[in-house]
Specification:
The radius of gyration is 17 Å and the shape is globular. 37% of the residues lie in helices and 15% in strands. Strands 3-2-1-4-5-6 form a six-stranded parallel beta sheet, sandwiched between helices. Strand 1, helix 1 and strand 2 form a beta-alpha-beta unit. The relative contact order is 0.16.
Length: 201
């Protein structure tokens, strides 16, 4: 199986890439900074595509021949509109491009932030009540996943039913050592926000 991965040089992405390789699959890795993980260059099962998730033409081309997509990358923005343009919009485009490319499985990496603050009795069926822009873009992308499923299951315009299976996972705060030798390590950016809030109080 050939698996297209975005965000493969990030904290979660390194471990996902390692697991996909260990399962015997090929990886197509879209990254702006392939030199963050020097070991990738020596692994023949990894095809590195240098580019940004905002470069939609590169996304479309790289998806050709892929069987699955694991979307981990996050496009940050410091305003609601920039978050929409750099993350939600790109995620929606990737969903559509995967559909057109004949991909059979897509896993979207959301976040517990889509659910908002911890509430009694929370589980995966809880109402999404994001408390910040990061959570909002994750929640919006999840809603688009549901919308895509309905659109391509005969409730929308397409005449043929989709063969693309879509799944969402919601990791919480993440931190770790690099998964590969000499690899970069980056903690969850929300840790910085927590530290600043503590110092201000």
């Amino acid at each position: 199986m050939k698996v297209f991965i975005t965000g493969g040089t990030g904290n979660i992405g390194q471990y996902v890439t390692k697991a996909v390789l260990a399962a015997g699959h090929q990886v197509v890795l879209l990254t702006r900074t392939p030199d963050r993980i020097p070991a990738y260059a020596d692994i023949p099962e990894i095809e590195i595509v240098k580019g940004n998730i905002l470069e939609l033409d590169i996304l479309e081309k790289a998806l050709q021949g892929c069987d699955a997509v694991i979307h981990i990358a996050l496009g940050w923005g410091n305003t609601p509109v920039k978050m929409l343009e750099h993350d939600t919009k790109v995620t929606v485009f990737l969903m559509e491009a995967a559909e057109k490319a004949g991909v059979s499985q897509m896993i979207y990496t959301s976040s517990t932030a889509a659910m908002g603050p911890l509430r009694d009795g929370m589980d995966e069926t809880a109402l999404l009540l994001p408390g910040d822009l990061y959570g909002a873009t994750k929640a919006a992308s999840e809603m688009y996943m549901i919308g895509f499923n309905r659109y391509y299951s005969g409730q929308g315009a397409p005449s043929e039913e989709s063969k693309l299976r879509r799944n969402v996972i919601r990791p919480g705060y993440t931190f770790s050592n690099p998964a590969f030798p000499l690899g970069a390590s980056q903690s969850d950016q929300r840790f910085n926000q927590i530290a600043k809030a503590v110092l201000q109080n």
